[in-house]
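Section 4.2 – Deliverable D4.2 (structural model, holo form)

The reporting period included a commitment to supply a predicted holo structure for the target in complex with uridine-diphosphate-N-acetylglucosamine. Inputs used:
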Amino acid sequence: MKIISVVGTRPNFVKIASLVKEFSKHPDITNILVHTGQHYDEKMSDSFFRELEIPEPDINLGIGSGSHAEQTGRIMIEFEKVLLNEKPDLVLVVGDVNSTLACALTSVKLGIKVAHIEAGLRSFDREMPEEINRILTDQISDYLFTTEKDAEKNLLNEGIAKSKIFFVGNLMIDTLLIHKERASNLKKPDSNDYAILTLHRPSNVDDKETLSNILEIIREIQSQIKIIWPMHPRTRNNLERFNLKEKLKEMKNVSISDPLTYLEFMNAVMNSKFVLTDSGGIQEETTVLNIPCITLRDNTERPVTIEQGTNYLAGSNKNSILEIIQKVLNGKAKQYRGIKFWDGKAAERIVSVIKNEKAN
Ligand code: UD1
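Output (structure tokens):
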């Protein structure tokens, strides 16, 4: 069986790592790894391949950055050539980024079956580019692999046949469980009296006023606890564009760095008091690591991390964010209560479904 697995951005690499490892145990599966090149910096891409022991991509489309239409269009044009050349039995896409939708759409138009990993997550906020990518990818996929129970409900509500949906668990957690020990063996920070911050959602960082408001909240938090902020290039570019860098320089208790590698980041999270983020994947990783996560968004497509995990949906209201932080620092944070199939075996389940379906 010939499969093409697609990756494009940082969270995709983390998810594909455990699946590629599982594929290598099955000699009857030929997996061709295609990197669209949506993320390309050493810190955003190469370091993940190295640390997570993902084989070099067989093909790199080298697409790079651009507007949504440019990026999606260029990926489709280049990926179509790969499909015509390789003629795979199945294309496997992960997550909700532009590479996910572009490659799924190119495949179905050529009559090639598509499997979507992390299907059915919904924020119900169509202003998020990822929500559009999720809905459209799910509509055209043949196999929908889900990470949490709510996802199946969402898919059924959108008219997707139950026979296409497979609850398999979470690849991102597979990868975390494989590499957790290595991450914890890295040198510990001198003190664990700090919080981590990550910020990159367009809704938070693409508008000057919103980003300024967030900086004001950060100013307040850093007067209570040191903040370590590995900065996404989108955010770095916008702080410059909006002339907001000076504001940040005044905050002496905020330590800004380039994006961290996977192991460095996990190590920093494990040793932190809490994480402030607008990322999707980090809500899941902090839950399993039992580190409080304060999500700087009004919605989440991952509600199980609120119900069963350590995640708080804090929005952008300064007082409610500070209130949650107080609770966490007083030792009253929520504890992880376990989530079905977040057990390190998602890759195994996915491969078993793919093989069964092929046999039928
Ligand atoms: C993308 C995904 C988002 C995901 C995030 C993970 C879409 C629509 N968005 O957002 O869902 O959560 O990746 O990080 O697919 N840049 C660099 N170096 C790189 C990559 C990007 O400098 O290696 C800069 C460029 O200026 C680029 C900007 O970051 O324009 C944004 O990159 P892009 O891939 O378009 O979106 P992300 O914000 O990274």
